[in-house]
Amino acid sequence: MKNLLKSLFSTLFLLSFVILSNAQEAGNGPILSEEQKTMVAEHKAEKEANHEAFKATLSEEQLAILKNKELSKQEKRKAFSQSLSEDQKAMRHANKESVMANRESLRSTLTDEQKEAIKAHREENREEFRASLSDEQKELIAAAKSEKEANRDAGVAKFTRTIF
């Protein structure tokens, strides 16, 4: 069941990525100005350069953690985070701050009309994606959502028990 959910979510993610990227290529033209498109391209190049610079700092041990198929996603994340040096943590934080600043700088250039067009475009893509799902996929998503909520609620209960 766990592998089925993973493969389903991977498929859904890839499908949504393809739909969104195609929609952006087709519909992004009139939404963003040429200056904004240039800004987005520069931000993307900066993000990729930062990512490559971070990857270059990873040790063999850290790469092994990321490639370990026996660990769950959460276990990988925890082990990887614990293995980071202070410099790597600082680099990771700086990269995150850079992405957030770039995102905010783009948002500050958007007009109200552009914001509404982007919102409508996003909702259209969501509806198109939902319509493309089979009943079985919808059931699997609902089951995974319920399981996630139950796990989150159990975690909150456990957290509150440890505090009080």
Helix residue percentage: over 70%
Gyration radius, to the nearest Å? Answer: 20 Å
Low-confidence stretches: 23-28
The DSSP helix count reads: 7
* β-strand amount: under 5%
User: What order do the helices and strands follow?
Assistant: HHHHHHH
How many strands in all?
Answer: 0
Count of separate structural domains: 2
Largest beta-sheet characterization = none
C-alpha termini separation: 35 Å
Overall pLDDT level: 84
Structural class: mainly alpha
Shape: flat
What does this structure look like?
The protein is mostly helical and 164 residues long. The chain folds into 2 domains: 2-132, no CATH class; 135-164. Helices cover 89% and strands 0% of the residues. The protein contains 7 helices and no strands. Helix 3 (60-67) runs antiparallel to helix 4 (73-83). The two termini are 35 Å apart.
Short description:
With 164 residues, the chain is mainly α. Helix content is 89%, strand content 0%. It folds into two domains: 2-132, no CATH class; 135-164.
Task: Please describe the structure with a list of short key phrases separated by commas or semicolons.
7 helices, mainly alpha, flat, 2 domains, 89% helix, 164 residues
Topology:
Layout: H1 2-31, H2 34-56, H3 60-67, H4 73-83, H5 86-109, H6 112-132, H7 135-163
